[in-house]
Design brief:
single chain, mainly alpha, Rna Polymerase Sigma Factor, Chain: A, Arc Repressor Mutant, subunit A, 2 strands
């Protein structure tokens, strides 16, 4: 696998640069390592197979996140299962990078809040970018962020994290 270039990155460089993002998106969505690994692999396989043209590395990253979300949705529709995370399970989850100190709390939230909070706080996307990635209205994203912050506040038992 070698000659393909994606936003000035080789296939291997693209994987190395975005593997943590894609893995985190999959894990946040599925709450299951084995399923997340499958969706992770499918996402990068689609990158290689489809070889889309990208305007920038930010465009590549947004495309990978969208494909990862779609892969997770496909798996959830196919299997009709979502394994709930219990308090005793949270010690067994290891996150792919250290920026995720709120990840354990995010996993306790409904998917609609989890995904916007993850993209906003962990991946540093703006509201308009999140709306585009998730194909939602900007005001919807703002509402989900506000409600999600309140839910995080309840989980942490303290001040809101804005």
């Amino acid at each position: 696998m070698g000659d393909k270039i994606f936003a000035a990155l080789s296939y291997e460089e693209a994987i190395n640069q975005y593997k943590r993002t894609v893995a985190s998106v999959c894990l946040m969505r599925l709450k299951n390592h084995a399923d997340a690994e499958d969706c992770f692999q499918n996402t990068f396989f689609k990158l290689y197979r489809n070889s889309p043209d990208f305007e920038s590395q930010e465009h590549l990253k947004a495309w990978l996140i969208r494909v990862a979300i779609n892969e997770c949705n496909r798996l959830l529709r196919k299997s009709k299962r979502l394994l709930p995370l219990t308090y005793s399970d949270k010690e067994t989850i290891s996150f792919p990078y250290d920026k995720c100190d709120i990840s354990w709390a995010l996993l306790m939230l409904d998917l609609k809040y989890r995904q916007v909070l993850f993209l906003y706080y962990v991946e540093d996307y703006e509201v308009s970018q999140i709306a585009q990635i998730l194909d939602k209205n900007e005001n919807t994203v703002k509402s989900l962020l506000r409600r999600g912050r309140e839910k995080l506040k309840n989980i942490y038992g303290g001040e809101s994290y804005e």
